[in-house]
C-alpha cells in the first residue's frame, strides 16, 4: 500500500519546513496542506523571483506536482486568490477541499479585537482570524468552501449568523458586513475558485491507490498544537502528525515516513512559555544571524537554546522517524552552545513536559562551539564539535538526524 510522507514542525513553528518541502517535494507527485491557514507563511525564491506562500503548497512552483488544500485548512478566499494570481495554468494541478472552512473578513477583525481587549492576557496571534474560524467550525456554525458555489444562499446564511451574533460584534466594535457588498464578494470568490473546489479526500485516496507519491506539509509546530501545545498560547488546530489524518481524510496507517523539522536553536513568536529563551546577547545574535522575523506578520521572533526535552515530547506525539536539522550555520562562531537536557520543576529534575511549562527552569549542558559549517554538504566535513552537537541531540531525543541544513540555499544540505 502506498503511504503519504509527512513533514512536521517539532518546535513552535518556523523551523524551516519551507526549504525541506521545497527540496523533497521534487520527488513527489502531490503535496497537501491539512491544517492552519494564512497564519503560516514562507518565501521561496526561484530564478530571482520572490513567491510569498501562505496557503498554496510550494509544489505549485513545479508544473508536474498536484497541490491540495485539505478539509482541515481554514481558507481566506481573498488571500488565496491573490496567491493564485502569482501562477499560470492552475487547472489540473491545484485543488481546494469543499469541506475546508471559510475564513472571511469578519474573522480577522474579531481576532484582532479580542486580542486588543485581552490586554496583557493576549495570545499574540497573527490576527488572521484563525481562532474565530475554527471556533465557528467546532461550534457547527461555520461555512465551508463548497458553499461558495451558491453565493446567494451563503450570503443569506451569513447575514442571519451576523444578526444572531449582533451583540458580540457590537461589544468588539466590529462592523457587521453589508448584505450587498458581501454578496458581490462571495460571487467574486465563486468565480475565481469554483474550478478548483472538489472532494479532496477522494482525490488523495485515488493518488495513493494509483501508486503516486504524496507529501503532506504541516503548518506551525507541534508545541502550538491546540491539545498538546502550551495552551492557551497555541494555534487553533492540531499541528501534530495526527492533524494530517483528520485534515485530509487519511487513516493513520496511510502515513508513511514522518520527517520532523527542528531548528538548531529554538524560536517562538507571540506569547507563552519558552523555557530556553535567551533574552541576552546570545538570543539577539541568533535573531540577527538567523533573520528571525515572521514571514506573515514581520514580528521579531523570541530566540533561545535547543530544548531536547520538549523536542523529545513533540517527536513522540508526531512519531518522527528522522529529523531535518535546520539553520545549523546560525550557531557558527558561538564559543559555547547549550542544550537543555532536563527541567527543574517543583524541586525535582524531570525529563518530561509538564502541563504548566511556565514553571520549569531549564538544566543545560554546555558544549564547545565551532567556527563554521556554512555551506558544508558532507557530514564528514563538519567540524568535530558540530558533529558532537548533532549526536548529542540524537542521544537526548532518541531520534536520528537524517538531513542537516547549512545555509538557506537548497544545495547546502547534508543528507546522511
Ligand atoms: P494564530 O494561529 O494566528 O491564532 O496565533 C496563535 C499563536 O500561534 C501565536 O503565538 C502565533 O504567533 C503562533 N503562530 C501561528 N502561525 C504560526 C506560524 O506559522 N509560525 C509560527 N508561529 C505561528
Could you outline the blueprint of secondary structure elements for this entry?
Blueprint: E1 4-9, H1 17-25, E2 30-33, E3 42-46, E4 49-53, E5 66-69, E6 74-75, H2 77-84, E7 94-97, E8 101-102, H3 105-118, H4 130-138, H5 151-164, H6 166-172, H7 179-193, E9 197-198, H8 200-209, E10 214-217, H9 241-246, E11 255-263, E12 266-268, H10 281-289, E13 302-304, E14 306-307, H11 308-318, E15 322-326, E16 336-345, E17 348-350, E18 361-368, H12 384-397, E19 400-405, E20 413-415
Parallel strand pairs: 1-10, 1-11, 2-5, 2-10, 5-7, 6-8, 7-9, 11-15, 14-16, 15-19
Antiparallel strand pairs: 3-4, 12-13, 16-17, 16-18, 19-20
Helix pairs in contact: 3-4, 5-7
This protein binds inosinic acid.
Residues 13-14, 39-40, 123-126, 128, 130-131, 219-220, 224, 233, 235-236, 269-270 line the site of inosinic acid.
Helices, by number, come to 12
DSSP E strands, number: 20
Overall mean pLDDT: 96
* Major pleated sheet: 10 strands, mixed
Q: Whole-Å distance between the termini?
A: 26 Å
Bound ligands: inosinic acid
Radius of gyration: 22 Å
Task: Return the structural class.
Answer: alpha/beta
* Poorly predicted spans: none
Helix content bin = 25-40%
Q: Per DSSP, what share of the residues sits in E-state strands of 2 or more residues? A: 15-25%
Biggest sheet strand line-up: 9-7-5-2-10-1-11-15-19-20
Overall morphology = globular
Structure notes:
The chain has helices at 17-25, 77-84, 105-118, 130-138, 151-164, 166-172, 179-193, 200-209, 241-246, 281-289, 308-318, 384-397; strands spanning 4-9, 30-33, 42-46, 49-53, 66-69, 74-75, 94-97, 101-102, 197-198, 214-217, 255-263, 266-268, 302-304, 306-307, 322-326, 336-345, 348-350, 361-368, 400-405, 413-415. A hairpin with a 2-residue loop joins strand 16 (336-345) and strand 17. 30% of the residues lie in helices and 22% in strands. It contains twelve helices and 20 strands. It has a ten-stranded mixed beta sheet, sandwiched between helices. It is an alpha/beta fold. Bound molecules: inosinic acid (IMP).
